[in-house]
Amino acid sequence: MNPESRRVAALVLTPPNSAGYFPARNDGALAVQPIGANASSGQTATADAQQAAARRLATPVSLARSYTGTGTNAHDWHFHLTLEGDDEATTRPSRFAPAEDKDISGNRWTAVPQRAPSTAPDPQWPAHPTAQVVDLGSGCGREPRLAGLAADRAEPQEHGRPDLTGRSFTLASVGGTTSPPPGQVDLGPNVVVFDPSMPSASIQRKLDAIFAEQEKNQFGGQRYAVLFKPGTYFNDVNVGFYTQILGLGSTPDAVTINGAVHVEADWFPPNNATQNFWRGAENLSVNPVGGADQWAVSQASPYRRMHVRGDLRLDDGGGWSSGGWISDTKIDGQVRSGSQQQWISRDSQFGSWTGSTWNMVFVGVEGAPAGTFPDPPYTTIGQTPVVREKPCLQVDESGDYRVFVPALRSNTSGVTWEHDSAPGAALPIDQFFIAKPGATADQMNAALTAGKNLLITPGVYHLDQPLHVTRPDTVVVGLGIATLVPDGGITAIDVDDVDGVKVAGLLIDAGTTSSAMLMQVGAPGSSADHSANPTSLHDVFFRVGGAAAGKARTSLVVNSNDVIGDHLWLWRADHAADDSHVGWSSNTADTGLVVNGNDVTVYGLFVEHFQKAQVAWNGNGGRTYFFQNEMPYDVPDQAAWMNGEIAGYAAYQVAPEVTSHQAWGLGSYCFFSTNPSVACSHAFEAPTAPNVRFHDMVTVSLNHQGTITRVINDVGETTPAGTKPVNLVRYP
């Protein structure tokens, strides 16, 4: 191909500093080379591109770079430059071109899977117009169009190719800094929306491009939500880090994937799923190829409101795994837990279940095995006492977006949606402030003060003040593992002691200045009765260290009464993107969860590696259904880890003054790899009282790296060598 034949739309690709941009390498890095010191800022992009293209390309394969215009509200535009000579301007939410499409002259050209844009603004690029591929009508093919140009820029631009005569863009204003058309919603640059009219090949290319970026991206800043409008699709949906797959129908059966919605562990041989975190699938049905789908995950990877017309595997070929969560889900066939160390399933329906390792908990699950702990280690509770399902984004019959907020329910089992729509309320999207990357805490708080709810789109948001929820029934929902980073030692979210707040789908990642707490529900001393309309937390995750050397004394403090926790992972990182981001004196964190309120209920409580008591429960009437814990790996020596005269800290500690508490299905493991001589006196600690009851506990020393001397208080055996569990059916 003759590089001089490339022509691009002037005024679109000309950065103010007159630098020439090369296409990205496969890893997404951007090479920048100056065109010339004397080049004027008015030099046309055609000349820039000709000079840049004449240089040697960095790699000998087809390349693509998404150039993202910043400062726009409705769309991003992207320009793709490939070695095949194809130049295409596209935007989200336009249709993605299929693998082979026809231009208006009848010639065929090849589209390149577009790399998703960075969420970080590029200071070299001011607010730009958008461009999109638009349908020209039946029989007319598709054509790139610029959009949103200012009047003085609205000139047709030539789109040249080496093998075709030039052709002109048709300009159409479809967004930019203007409001989206009626019925459309701007969900930011990291939300991809598919509808069943799109070619399967085009959808697949986009899915593959996201997965290629996210497969190994454990501590990266990219976030994605992939939304499927109601209909039927033929695709293989492989789900990587920080990716949420979400159906937009009123029930899971409104969206059907013929293929797979799955998680593998190929990136971490040999098939090790113990670090498959931070992803999710919701509100879809799957007809799996071969009759079985796979969700090989560990923590913070919820599988909610799903319907699998076949079997579901929870590991990858027998490789290690440490999950996990299923709720409001129907599996027509068999669930096979494989190597999973532990798992909780809530309010679901299974054809059957097979497999166990240490701690499998079923609450309100039809088709669950009988409770036979510890042989096999099944803990089965027939009904869920009180619960509210997670709010979720949907579209209604007119195609308008809404957020469905399920109702509070008591004494439940099975799925909510099989025979009709689940009970609850649908809130119009105009009742939400839609936060997109770059939104500030001040903007979000202003919206909350004005009576809006929050829909936080995928991205990483640094906060300089807490998000303060003061209004009863406020809904705060994150998409695509939206991440909040409290800078300067502040609290990320502060919820007042009010009725019915719902917080869902967020990762709160501690900043490098230590916070006293990352989230608080209710002020200290809160005493109001919220039993008729409790606050609920769904898929809310906390991280201290990993992406940075984060610090926080406590992750979550619950002072309000009657709060419901519905899948929580509180994690002091044991590994990181950089060794300096973890360590006994680096990512410091005393306690994961402190509960001061009464009658608090938590389903699926995962708390790991904190340096003192992992959970400190001070309120009466508390209930926990499933607890998974690992003690800190990096204790330097016993002297550094003493609770007064007691060796180590309990993983789950109920205060001496508590008179009523119950917990089912609890596991705590030690792996004192820094110093295997370290011991913990007991994993669980509780007062001896008639209404304090623990059911089905297990302790394990992984690879016999250290010991747990007793299970609870002074009861239970010491963990032996050989990664063998110590089980205790009840206490007292």
Automatic annotation (TrEMBL):
CDD domains for this protein: GH55_SacteLam55A-like
Biased composition (Basic and acidic residues): 152-164
Gene3D superfamilies assigned to the protein according to its UniProt record, in alphabetical order: Single-stranded right-handed beta-helix, Pectin lyase-like
Record's compositionally biased regions (Polar residues): 167-178
Residue numbers spanned by region Disordered: 88-131, 150-186
Protein name (record): Coagulation factor 5/8 type domain-containing protein
Protein's organism: Amycolatopsis echigonensis
Lineage, highest ranks first: Bacteria, Bacillati, Actinomycetota, Actinomycetes, Pseudonocardiales
